[in-house]
Input
Amino acid sequence: SECREIIYLIHVACVCAGHNASRDVVTLVKSVLFHRRNPLHFHFITDTVANRILSSLFQSWMVPSVQVSFYDADELKSEVSWIPNKHYSGIYGLMKLTLTKALPSDLSKVIVLDTDITFATDIAELWGIFRKFTDKQVIGLVENQSDWYLGNLWKNHKPWPALGRGFNTGVILLYLERLRRIGWEQMWRLTAERELMSMLSTSLADQDIFNAFIKQNPVLVHQLPCFWNVQLSDHTRSEQCYTEVSDLKVIHWNSPKKLRVKNKHVEFFRNLYLTFLEYDGNLLRRELFGCPTQASPESLQKALEELDEDDQCYDFRRERLTVHRVHLYFLQYDYTPTEDNTDITLVAQLSMDRLQMLEAICKHWEGPISLALYMSDAEAQQFLRYAQASEVLKNRKNVGYHIVYKEGQFYPVNLVRNVALKNANTPYVFLTDVDFLPMYGLYDYLRKSVVQMDMAHTKKALVVPAFETLRYRLSFPKSKAELLSMLDMGTLYTFRYHVWPKGHAPTNYAKWRTATTPYKVEWEPDFEPYVVVRRECPEYDQRFVGFGWNKVSHIMELDAQEYDLMVLPNAFMIHMPHAPSFDISKFRSSSSYRNCLNTLKDEFHQDLSRKYGSAALKYLTAQRNI
Amino acid sequence: SECREIIYLIHVACVCAGHNASRDVVTLVKSVLFHRRNPLHFHFITDTVANRILSSLFQSWMVPSVQVSFYDADELKSEVSWIPNKHYSGIYGLMKLTLTKALPSDLSKVIVLDTDITFATDIAELWGIFRKFTDKQVIGLVENQSDWYLGNLWKNHKPWPALGRGFNTGVILLYLERLRRIGWEQMWRLTAERELMSMLSTSLADQDIFNAFIKQNPVLVHQLPCFWNVQLSDHTRSEQCYTEVSDLKVIHWNSPKKLRVKNKHVEFFRNLYLTFLEYDGNLLRRELFGCPTQASPESLQKALEELDEDDQCYDFRRERLTVHRVHLYFLQYDYTPTEDNTDITLVAQLSMDRLQMLEAICKHWEGPISLALYMSDAEAQQFLRYAQASEVLKNRKNVGYHIVYKEGQFYPVNLVRNVALKNANTPYVFLTDVDFLPMYGLYDYLRKSVVQMDMAHTKKALVVPAFETLRYRLSFPKSKAELLSMLDMGTLYTFRYHVWPKGHAPTNYAKWRTATTPYKVEWEPDFEPYVVVRRECPEYDQRFVGFGWNKVSHIMELDAQEYDLMVLPNAFMIHMPHAPSFDISKFRSSSSYRNCLNTLKDEFHQDLSRKYGSAALKYLTAQRNI
Output
């Protein structure tokens, strides 16, 4: 059989703005992908936020036989901004009116969906209804299932004009070609202008205008069976719409109560929704049989083909080529850059088992934070509920939460770190780990240091000395003096003093005790301090997955690029104790794991020499002398 | 519309024996339930292990419009034990031959499935094929997709006789009524006896006999389209079986390599399988529209109806009525009772974030362990991978792992504890928490104490004194003397010394220091020691969900039942530090939470008085004096 693309490619359009809609639309997309058997083309009308989130999501998702296009909602605003609208969706609620203009002029048909829709069947079935349109029909809609347009909801309730109960615009079959031909753009405008003279504003956004338009032009509408838009608002007539599960095609969560809406079968609907909410999106990467479209770029294809399955480090190299799905700014985010250009973002990565650190970090660092979270789809939802329930996290808008979806055996720690690093929006970054608490006031102190040290014009990495406590109930030191006395008392130690002193010894803690000005230290093998650098520093080397050498290699490359390592005399951070992390990969710490790590180190050294010339040979020599 | 049961109830039979098959069959069942729209009746031929696991699973799963029946495989063994069989499935591999005998005599048709099957469509479609049988046909099968029965796999390869490539018995439509009528039971036996004269044994178990039978009686077979049993063995012809995703109906993982089998579309198949493997089974409790069958018992229905939604403790009371799915003995388990009747099971419960404690506990306690794990379906699979990769856990067969599936907002800690308690298989239990390590040798010491204290004939609770360390790197004390000196050094503390001394103060640590014989202590309010008791002790009170009063109420009831609390002079256990657990419920610790806890305490006191008379009033008085 030939690829069904020849038969039909299905086009879907969606207006999507802001962080929450960008998250909701993913559940819609998953439900569509789960059932589909055709190539799809998604058209998203987006604001800047949704564009950033969805473009990176789809790029990393790499679903075969799925195309995605974006259209700038800002450019369309002027088309509808003149319409007063009381609906909570705001100006974006009106944008479906502009689709003939927004979408490519050669696109003849499109299915338009709200973001709060869940599909229970193959979308091709809905697409097929276009064929049932008579020659005159230009728009397919389901009847509204509430009594709104009957105008009897309360005394003096006066809705916009509509045919009977009117139609719901959560699911629309738009015959774009015909709409353009009949002059839709002028027609809806005239309707809106005329009605607004008496109505003053829309109550249900685009839906009021669509209905007024249809009331005037009833022959243009093709009424869809109601199961194509089962509306779960209160007092809905939706129950009359289906007698069996198999009758249900599309569920529309159009109550402001969303999942908490009351309905005889709401549990069934909720289950269906939850199925997709937590569904592992990686599983939707399955190819359509007979459609040889490549989702992954050719370079990746080639790299995969070049891998040698007999290489003992195959698993490591394979992991490095895994493209993890990334959902940037999973939660509301709002950051305004400072004018003095000295701002610093705290950058860290974590997985589920460190979630309880977030509140404490927020209390210790008031500046912007960029966090990458390595999670499954289900865990991301658990995290969402956690964040929405936390007073501390809810009140912070300058924290960017970026989900990197789990896949494969290893923890791709440097890939996750790079996602956090690349999505920091300040000129400087503080590269830390999530199990550390910064001293109180570190954010202000670092910002002053950035100016003092002339970071804008010199190449420096500011070292924040790291300490650790082995006790849970630590009264966190308020000053360097207090820290030093706790160090003397044995309540605190320098970080990894007992197990891996080399990692931080070059910080020179002895000198730090009495230092009052920043001092320069030299790179040494295995040095892995926590540093503040400009955001345009080298990325972490992603060949190091799982554990070992992930930060060491980064500091080495900073040194190769001739960053000066400057220890700050009045900064400190403390590692908080935690149980050993549960990570399957630790069970892979076999001799072959260690051998591979050595092979990867060698290759990293070779790459350094290639990039930075003979000076970089010192790393290899240093390594060999250990 | 009327319930489809009137149209047809679909019967499915499955032979299932042992822990692994009992786990695998759940994925099959989930895939069937996911797509089904009809009432189902599952018939399981089981050994003792599978019966225990599956009966409790289905009882707690409470899927509407699903009936389950069990048939004892042991009683059927004699029917097939005379057949020499080389297949790895052993005697259970032959049991499908006995279904006409095993299943009820009035059952006329059944679909028979292997446990390594995944459904990609509604099973009603397969059931519908019975209608296409001619009057003569009694059995529906898919052609075998390997070359096995062609007899050319290697030199002198001599398979059992078959028609062409033969048929695969992973999916069978059995027309029981007609089979009985034609005398199937004698027929297959005669065939087997005759062939065994030359073949000596079966290689592929029942499949060889079915094929030999069909070779002799070709008119009896109805050949099914191959997509009803896409066989993913090596060198399979399965690719010729489908050209599009929608052609796939049933996938059969019949290679010993299971998911690691090589096949052009294996990734697609694997995704489908993984979808159900980690699918939240709670979501399958959805009712069939129009089928008013009650899955939950009437008493539960009634209790639910009696709940008052306006009660401020509604959430607590609702949670208590939630029936959590329980999968007992999720991993291999093998325990032989000791003959002296003094054995003790360590009983504890945990969730994902304490998994790393398991290895340590196993190293400190060599006796039997009963663990209840509170997890989602996806987490249970993660746990399975963890356990299979751990040398320590793999080598222990006397640990019963019981999964209690997550549902709702609260952590139902006492329900989970009760699952662990009820599934201990020894006369005595050591009731502990998973973040404690028992002293080395505690198991032996407790067994001796059980005899010494005459636990068999007296009502005693043996108290194991509890200590704690706030440090990670503890060198675990080897003796009481060493523990006491660490206590003096401040390396150890008595448990909760800093935050809640009342919980263990009645243990009388001062007396314990010098004690050499067990001593009795009196109950006091808020006492919550860790104790050894007979297994038939009271259960934990399940009204206490989330945090607070879960162990206190249990000790109180032991006291009400006049258990003597005896502190053991040479036993101890140490609490290991861990980060505060990530639990959404803690964010619910509002004033209303505390109010409800008080209400529940009052009700518990009232229940105690009702059960144990006026003597139990002392608990209420004690409570009020605090």
Notes: The longest strand of chain B covers residues 167-174. The radius of gyration of chain B is 29 Å. Chain B touches chain A through 52 residues (CB under 8 Å). The mean pLDDT of chain B is 90.
